[in-house]
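Researcher: Here's my situation. A collaborator sent me these components and asked whether they could plausibly form a single complex. I don't have experimental data yet, so a predicted model of the whole assembly would be a useful starting point for our discussion.
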Amino acid sequence: MKKKLNLAPVFFVGPHVILFAVFILLPTIYGIYASFTKWNLMNDPVWVGLDNYKTILFDNSSTFHTQFNNGLKNTLIFVLLSVPLLIVIPLLVAVALEHKKVKGKSLIQSIIYIPGLISISAGALIWLLLFNKQLGMAGNVFGSDVSWPANQPYAWIIIIIITVWGGVGGNMIIYRASISGVAQDLYESAEIDGAGPVRRFTSITLPSIRFPLIYTFVMTTAGAFNVFGQPLMMTDGGPRQSTHVLMMYIRQLAFGNGESIAGMASAMAVLLGLIILVISALQYYVMNRNAA
Amino acid sequence: MDNSPLLNGQNAGKRKGSGISISKYLSYLFLIILCIIWIVPVIFGITTSFRSQTEVVSSGFRMFPKEWIFDNYIAILENTSTAPILRWLMNSLLIATMHTLLVVVVISITGYGYSRMKFKGRDTLFFTLLGISFFPGVVNLIPSYKIIDALGWVNTSWAMVIPGLAGMGNIFLVRQFMNGIPKELDESAHVDGASHYRIYMSIIVPLIKPVLIVCALFSFTGSWNDFLWPVIVFTDVDKMPVTAGLLLLQDIYGNYRMIGQLMGSAILAIIPTLLLFVFAQKYFVQSINLNSGIKG
C-alpha cells in the first residue's frame, strides 16, 4: 500500500516530464550545442567552436553575415511597426467597447476577434486578392496602380495590415477583461471631481491594467520576433530581400533546397533567442519599475 | 404625458450628457470603421469563391458576384492530384482532434500531479520546467526536426500531434485552477480509501471542466492554424495539413489565375475554426478570466 502511494506521482507527472525532456529540454540543449558545430542534419555535428558566430557577426565577405544582418534588420522593422499597433489599437477598441452607451458590443467584439482564428496562409491568400493589382480592391476602388507585394513601402504595409488584422483580437480580449474588472466607483468619483474621459483613461484605466499591459507588451514583442508566415506568404521576402526576416533565413539554411547548413542556422537561432530573451527581460524590468 | 423625470435628468447632467454623446459617437465611428476593415476581406474572399473566372477578370471590383456559381468548389473537390484540399482538410482535422484530446488528458493528469499530490521536490520540479519553457522556442526548432526524423515521424501526423504536448502553459493554467479547489474535498476521499485515480476521475476532472474546455479550444485552433512547423516537417503533398497546403496553392494557382478556386480553398480552410467559435464563443471570450495571473 505504502509503496503504491509513493509511486503514484510518477504516473501522474512522469509522462509529461518525459515529453518535456524529449521535445523541449533535449532539443534546446542540442540547439545550443549545434550552434558551435558544422552540421548538415544528416551526419554528426563537427565542433567548430565560435566559428559560426564569428562568421555571422563579423565576416563581411560571408553571405551568412549579410543574411543575418538583413534578416535581423527586417525582423526589427517588423517588430517596431507591428507591436505598437498591436498594443494601441486593441486598447482603443477595449476602451471604446467599455462605453456604456455603445450597443452591439458582442457582435463588434466577435468581428474583431475572428481574424485571430484564421490561419496565416488562408488570411494571406484573401488579403493578397484584395491588394491584387488587377482583381482587388486596392486597384479598382482606390485606383492604386502598384503591385503591392513587389514594391516598398507597400510590401511592408500589407504585411503589417494582415498582422494587425489577425493580432488585435487576442489583446483586445485581455484588455476588455481587465478594464471591466476596474472598480466602477473609481470612475464615478473621478467624474464627480470633474475628470474628463482622457484624464480618467490615463489616471485610472491605464494604471489599473498595468500588469496585463506589461504582459501583452512582452508577449506580443517576443511573438513578433518570430515572424515568419506573413512575409513568406505575402511577399516571399521581396522585393529584393527587403522583407526577408530572420526566421525565413533560419528555415532556408536548415531545411531549404541543397545541403543543409543547420549549424549556421542554429547559431542564428540562438542569437535570435538571446535577443528575444534580453528584450523581454528589459521590457518587463523597465515597465514594472516605471509603473511601481 | 409625464416626462419630467427625463427632463430633470437631462437638465441635471447637461454638460456631462453632451460629453458622453461626443465620446459615444467617436467610439461608434472608430469601431464601425474597424469592423468594416476587419470583415470586408473575409466577405470578399467568400463572394469571390462563388464568381466565375471570367467575371473576376473582366468586371472590375464588385463586392458581390453577378451570378453565384459553385463551379469553383466542384473543381477544388475534383482536383485530387495537385491540390488535394479535401485530403488536407481531413489531415488537419485528424491532427487537431488527436492533439486536442491528448492535450486534455496530459494537462489534467499532470496538473493533478502538481496540484493535488504531495511528493518531494514537487514545486521545484514544476517551476524548473516552467522556467526552462520560457526559453525562446526558436532555439529548439532545428533539433526538434531531427528528433521527429529519428522517430520516423517526418511526413506523419505524429509530428504535429505529439511535440506540442510538452508545453507548460496549459499545465500552468490547470494547476492554478486546481489550486483554487478546496483540499478538503479530495483529502476526505483519500481518508475514505479512494485512490488518486478515483479522485482524479470523479472529483477533480468534473470540477476543472471549464479550464479544460478553454485549453481544448485553443489547442484545436492553434493546431489547425500552425504554419511554420508543418511547412518544415511535411514534404509529401498528400500528408500535409491544410495550412501548409495553401502555401503550395499559391504556386499551383500561380499569380491568381484560378482565383475562384484559390479563394474557395482558403474559405474551406477557415470554416472549422469559425464554426468552433460560433458554438463556443463564450469560452473564447471568457478564456482570460481563467488566467488570474494576467488579470492582476
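Model: Some features of this prediction you could bring to your collaborator: The radius of gyration of chain B is 26 Å. Residues 1-17, 292-296 of chain B have pLDDT under 50 and may be disordered.
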